[in-house]
Amino acid sequence: MTNSNSMLSARSISKSFGDVHALVDVSLDIPAGQSVSIMGPSGSGKSTLLHCLAGILKPDRGDISLGGDPVSLSSDAARSRLRLDRMGFVFQDGQLLPELPAVENVALPLLLQGRSRTEAFGRATEWLGRLGLAGLERRRPGQLSGGQAHRVAIARALVGSPAVVLADEPTGALDQATGAEVMRVLTAAAKGVGASLVVVTHDAKVAAWCERHIEIVDGQVLTDFARIAAA
Ligand SMILES: Nc1ncnc2c1ncn2[C@@H]1O[C@H](COP(=O)(O)OP(=O)(O)OP(=O)(O)O)[C@@H](O)[C@H]1O
Questions:
Q1: Which of 73, 118, 136, 201 has its CA at 20 to 30 Å from residue 60's CA atom?
Q2: Start and end of every ABC transporter domain (predicted)?
Q3: Distances (CA, A) of 151 to 13, 154, 180
Q4: What is the pTM (predicted TM-score) of this model?
């Protein structure tokens, strides 16, 4: 049964790759607006879980739903559409398109959704301003600092007002101070639009920005607890 407060819900999901049981009977309910870190040893199943929650991987067993709508049962096309309309992604290297200016990188999800260029560019510009990047709209990713490029990636993840933001090592190669700043911006921006945030990380300092902490070991949830987030 799905918890009625849950925005993103996994019900007894399992996923194997050959003999490797990457996820074993994992259940999870993430309420709207909650930030959650997922930690665990290398190979414990963190990325597999994130990819299943995103609908990128299909679990062998179990169900995933977003706002009550099935993620894991729908077709590839329906899952792509669901990702575009209701999910935002932030990955280690930002995954910005290097040849496009910042504003076009941020506008892209809205253009793919079929919004007008005026609306897409207007909202992208507004988000860049909100994240402290006013004046840098025309810069290409290579002309930005690591921290600035991550903010562009955060703006792109949030511009479509997603229900959930999924982040895999979002501060990856950044130094500690810049990483902390990126987490401050990411958690505040997700909270600002009421999006749930799921952050996979190896770094306890990154995890500390989240309200809830899940530890995965051998494909299973070992611990799951909430504490007061960093200021
Ligand atoms: N596409 C795949 N094909 C085969 N095995 C895979 C595949 N993806 C993951 N695995 C295996 O599943 C297990 C879980 O991998 P996963 O990437 O989810 O772990 P992780 O906790 O994210 O690891 P890391 O912290 O090193 O990124 C590992 O044993 C991994 O080798």
A1: 201
A2: 8-230
A3: 33, 5, 12
A4: 0.91
Ligand 1 centroid to Cα of residue 157, in Å, is 24
Which DSSP category does 63 fall into? E
Sort 99 into a burial class: Cβ within 10 Å, 0-12 / 13-18 / 19+: exposed
| CA dihedral sign, ordered 103, 97, 37, 220 | positive
List the chain residues with pLDDT less than 50. Answer: 1, 229, 231
Both structure tokens of 211: 């309200």
| Residues 82 and 66 sit within 8 Å (Cβ to Cβ) | yes
Ligand 1 atom with least separation from CA of 200: 22
Q: For 202-215, what is each residue's pLDDT tens digit?
A: 999 999 999 999 99
What's the distance, Cα to Cα, between the start and end of the chain in Å? 34
Ligand 1 within 6 A of 39 CB? Answer: no
Q: Which top CATH class is 30-226?
A: alpha beta
What tokens does 64 get? 């995933």
The verdict on the CB of residue 23 being under 6 Å from ligand 1 is: no
Can you tell me which residue has the tokens 């910005």? 96
What CA–CA distance (Å, rounded) separates 209 from 34? 11
Cβ atoms of 70 and 59 closer than 8 Å? no
Measured in Å, residue 92 CA sits from the centre of ligand 1 at: 16
> pLDDT per residue over 156-176, tens digit each?
999 999 999 999 988 877 888
Domain extent listing, the chain? 30-226
